[in-house]
Amino acid sequence: MKIWTSEHVFEHPWSTVVNAAWRKYPNPMNGAVTNMDVISQQVDEGVVKSERIIQSQFSIPSWATKLTGFSGTQYSHEYSVIDPSKQTMSLTTRNMNGVSFLKVDERLTYVPHTTDPNKTILKQEAIISVKLPAFADYCEKTFLSVYSSNATKGRSGIEWVIGQFRKEYDELTNKVSSEVHEMGEKMMGAFHKVK
Amino acid sequence: MSDRQMPSIFHECDELKQVYDKCFSEFFQKFITPNYRHQYAVNPCERLHEAYNDCVKERLEKTKIYDIDLDELRKEVIGSEEDKLKHQQQQQHKK
Known about the structure:
The complex is a heterodimer. Chain A is of the alpha+beta class. Chain A has 3 helices and 7 strands.
């Protein structure tokens, strides 16, 4: 068993990061995630609790498939609790395939920075255990290095989504201002006609 | 954000999912802002989720895409005692 932990600071307020984290997929940095379903969702006493099943597509060498029975399509279960009055979002994710030899538990928590409300801290923890005699240590190490690089991709993914939101917002404001501008022109034209 | 969508695992449920997602995203965006009255919030998309989830649930049961027992996993993952209790009540309610 191996445990991996990390902390990351986003230069955005909590609600921005959480909005992006909730709608993180699809993004170009995490192309493996292809499909997703929300299997339960409750809004209860100011807290949103959701369960999602996430489908990912990996390219796995055929020898590994033979060894482990793992195919390229994987499913994971995600349970999330979002409490906006306490400003916390926590996600617990576990793999749903190949559990007889591999268990991955991941826990993510998004909370505001203790002193700067314009920053958000992501705490990340992963517990990996591989049950393949002789291979366990090798597999755990390999998995961790892949996981660690994926974690970086996950963060860039969130930044990308925030960028998309911003772009959409800018487009909206641009659109509004241009429509206002056009309206102004039309009004002016009308005035000219009246004259 | 209409161009950035995550499809359902089951093609047949995708249309229902997109309708639900759109509804929930709109609610969620307001819900997480600091001045929203969180305590009094209800999920405005509950009915849409019901229709969508019926579609998914039926297919999850049929296809067995994963090799774990979902109820067992829930017992372990769905954290607090309070959560567990609520979940049990829901299950009983469904029966």
